[in-house]
Design goal:
Blueprint lengths: L8 H13 L2 H7 L4 H15 L4 E4 L2 E4 L1 H28 L4 E7 L1 H6 L1 H11 L3 E7 L2 H9 L5 E5 L8 E15 L9 E2 L9 E4 L4 H12 L6 E5 L2 H9 L5 E4 L5 H4 L3 E6 L5 E8 L7 H12 L4
Parallel strand pairs: 3-4, 3-5, 7-11, 8-9
Antiparallel strand pairs: 1-2, 5-12, 6-10, 6-11, 6-12
Helix pairs in contact: 1-2, 1-3, 1-4, 2-3
Length: about 300
């Protein structure tokens, strides 16, 4: 067993920098070390771990499988050290707890700004780090211990998590103001499938939901353009590049007053639940437990 307590954060940072740049000179400069000092630190890392981390080449470094694996561990350790430093600063400044919240785009745009403002209004000594992520990435962040609480769509697998309803949202068909569908007060998905769609990128739970609904109806979703944000979808639709399906609450009112129209989608699946989940509610910190309870009851209130 190697004595890994001999590792220090500067050497771990150097390992990550060298793994990313494949160049010891660049890594040394980024770590504010001389080239000789950096070389000695990498050699000491290899001695302590008992692994060859890099193969020295005439023009750079070639990272070994061991180096790749240990660099990934080093990234996590450096992230944890950074969070430790932030938390220590928070505690010194009177902040009682630092919570990590992951949420999908629908929740971030529609509900969380006001919900978190209301919660923090009564809990001013709590700091929340909010990260916007796809629903499946949010679930994985919970399982990996990167998030204390997660908010995600109801169509992603959540094995092993404690899940409660958070909010309801309604999906609508978004079209240009002069589109043929505008004359309809409401439509089903089948009535839209003859048109090109603008959609979110692969991995989106919303895109998967629409594709599954189209397949169940015996149709095929014709995705012409994929973008990374709801705002991007709106802009592409404004430009006449297709139609889209979005939560009504995610579309800014001023956008609907200009070039776009929202048409009610009457399929049952268009009424969607956003869930909030944790790994184990009983093991949450008191501050995280308060936020989890608030998010599970805010809609009822």
């Amino acid at each position: 067993m190697h004595n890994l307590l001999q590792l220090d954060l500067l050497s771990l940072r150097l390992l990550v920098l060298a793994a990313d740049s494949k160049n010891l000179t660049k890594a040394a400069e980024q770590a504010h070390l001389t080239l000789s000092a950096a070389s000695k630190r990498l050699a000491e890392l290899e001695r302590v771990t008992g692994c060859t981390l890099f193969i020295r080449l005439p023009r750079g470094l070639q990272i070994t499988p061991a180096g790749q694996g240990l660099a990934q561990h080093a990234r996590l350790m450096l992230d944890n050290a950074q969070r430790l430093a932030h938390d220590a600063t928070d505690f010194a400044n009177g902040v009682r707890g630092h919570l990590r919240l992951f949420a999908n785009t629908s929740a971030v745009i529609q509900f969380l700004p006001q919900d978190l403002a209301d919660f923090l209004g009564t809990h001013p000594d709590i700091r929340i780090s909010l990260e916007e992520a796809l629903s499946d990435m949010t679930v994985q962040a919970l399982k990996d211990g990167k998030a204390d609480i997660g908010i995600f769509a109801d169509n992603v697998p959540t094995n092993g998590l404690e899940v409660r309803p958070y909010r309801q949202d309604q999906l609508v068909v978004l079209v240009p103001a002069d589109h043929p569908l505008v004359r309809h007060g409401s439509v089903s998905l089948v009535e839209t499938l003859e048109y090109d769609f603008v959609a979110l990128n692969q991995g989106s739970s919303l895109l998967e939901r629409i594709r599954q609904a189209a397949a169940s109806a015996g149709g095929l979703l014709k995705v012409r353009i994929q973008v990374s944000s709801f705002d991007g979808i709106c802009r592409m639709i404004e430009a006449g590049l297709g139609i889209g399906i979005l939560p009504l609450g995610s579309v800014r009112p001023e956008v609907l007053q200009r070039k776009l129209r929202a048409i009610h989608l009457r399929d049952a699946w268009a009424s969607r639940t956003l869930n909030v989940g944790v790994v184990e509610a009983a093991r949450l910190s008191p501050e995280a437990a308060n936020l989890f309870h608030y998010l599970t009851t805010v809609q009822a209130g």
